[in-house]
Amino acid sequence: MKKNMKKKPYRSVFSNAIWAFRHQLKFAPKSFLLLMLGIPLAVAQSYMGILLPSLVVKEVTAGSALTNVAVSVGLLMLSIFLCKMLGQAFSYMQEGYLSNYRWSISEIIDQKALGCFYQQFEKKEVRDLHERATKTTQMWNGVQPISDMPRYTAELIINVLSYLLFGSVVSLVHPLLVPILTVAPIVNWVCVRAYNKWEYANRDKWTDTSRKLWYVRTKPADFAAGKDIRLYGMMDWFIDMFKSLNREYAVWDKQRVGRKFLSGIANLFIILIRDGAAYVLLIAMTLRGEITVDEFVLYFAAISSFAGFIGGILGSWNHLQATSLSLCDLREFLDLPEYDGTGEESITEHLAYAPEITFDHVSFRYDGAENDTLHEISFTVKAGEKIALVGLNGAGKTTIVKLLCGLYTPTSGEIRLNGIPLSKFLRKDYYKLFSPVFQNIKTAYFSLGETVSGVVGKDYDREKAELCMRRAGLGEKLESLPMGLDTKLDKQVNENGIELSGGELQKMMLARALYKDAPMLVLDEPTAALDPIAESEIYQQYQSMTSGKSAVFISHRLASTRFCDRILYLENGKITEEGTHETLMHKKGRYAELFDIQSCWYRDDFGKENMK
Asked: Would the pLDDT of 603 be above 60?
């Protein structure tokens, strides 16, 4: 229950307004200047707007010549026109420049997400926070917090200045009018503020539902999922899920609209009481001869506008509060700790040769888990050694690889590179040690050459990229493509793009690892999507691929482990067996048992027996 309690906003409205102005000034200084110039123009235009009808009445009742009336009124109207025209011009120009500010903040968010410590980014609450931070730069129901924050702040300044200016005029009618007209809207402000707090407190509910809804809406368009959806008759499931999530979202939306409506009703009553009393007072004063007709017109307009500015102040403040809460998510995400190394040690001297990495009594527990996934793991990958990690699903193989690559930090114990604790290296430098090939593959819409080299554009070693693709078994594929290395991936984005098969994608990732040519190769099920022939070809090249490098290899197919110098068999988060393939087979333990189970599928006698 305590987790669901409302927490205090991460930053105050004032702090977020200063933050927004500072970044707008940094990334879009012209937009900031135009916004500031628009403030005095808006105040002047409002004041001249209430002077105009009063001036007309004054000139007419005084019996002034038509020429004098035309000149005085015309000049005032021209001034109003110029203020309005300049204000609109500044507003349109500002919107054009403001895009730089929005894109710059989006870039900062992306940089933070891409550089965020992997173990931290895996947490659901961090991914939810990232999603909400991303939405601050997007338009949702006419709201774009990152742009609205400086705009509403400027509106608040305009309303406050106008309040002070018009308040001085209203106070001439009666000194008590200003406090009376000011105090009344506080009820409305309290109602709207209560609504904003409620919406903020419940934001996690609609964030989770919104993400699921977005997933269900976009997944049917995914080529990879399209086959399963059709062949397994999942269309009705997606439609039912979409309807269910829509109903769930509608329940929350109904509550939101209802609460907002109630806060609006309170505002209507306040306007009726507040303005009605002020107008009755003005009429009485005019009938008693205490003010002239032109003064009545001036004060009438001033009170009407004054009430509007009070509402404007409260409205701008409420908008600022709601927008500020969104910026709280953005700033909280950007302020997440980096969990980086100290940088005391340089990685440069360790990149020239195969490294030695030691796990010293390393344990690891995932957030929220009751037990450790790894228990007191100790082993050393010696320089130039090829090690295989094998075991059943859930044994801890992938967790070890993530710890090895610096994507996780141990819950206890220590990992050392050539005798130096990993905590002394900057992570971005430590990552240079590894050329990994993971089982789950993601590619973008870049060309083959860009994907292999990791360089966008043509500023990469084309000869090396082609050689790596051929070594990874993609030579024939490359020759079959008219555009060769320049062939684009993802035909959903590129008109002439191609879609690679699962096996081809794994070979592509292997080629990318070869291109990086890091001193340590990490292969996590690199042949999972390959047929036996292609797998055999990869294994035959394995020795040359890892020559002069240290390597860690994960595979469920134990036949592949004979290529390694040493095998670590994991069970329940512990290393239970260790040795060469021959040693472990002679031991006749769990490794040998699993190897026999797998190999029997390839024996002729087993196949014939099961064909009967």
From this structure: no
Tokens of 414: 């220590």
Alpha helices in 186-345 (DSSP H): 186-201, 203-218, 223-231, 235-287, 293-334
- Look at residue 611 in the predicted model and tell me its pLDDT: 37
Closest of 100, 30, 595, 19 to residue 328, by C-alpha: 19
Contacts of 441 (CB under 8 A, 6+ apart): 502, 505, 506, 508, 509
Under a CB-based contact definition with an 8 Å cutoff, are residues 432 and 351 in contact? yes
DSSP state of 592: H
Write out the two tokens for 463: 């000869």
Residue 367 amino acid letter: D
Please give the Cα distance from 32 to 18 (Å, whole number): 12
pLDDT digits (tens, 9 = 90+) for 238-255: 888 888 888 888 877 777
SS3 for 379? strand
User: pLDDT per residue over 88-136, tens digit each?
Assistant: 899 888 888 888 899 999 999 999 998 889 999 988 889 989 999 998 9
Read off the pTM.
Answer: 0.72
Assign 3-class secondary structure to 153-195. HHHHHHHHHHHHHHHHHHCCCCCCHHHHHHHCCHHHHHHHHHH
Give the side-chain half-sphere CA count within 13 A for 456: 3
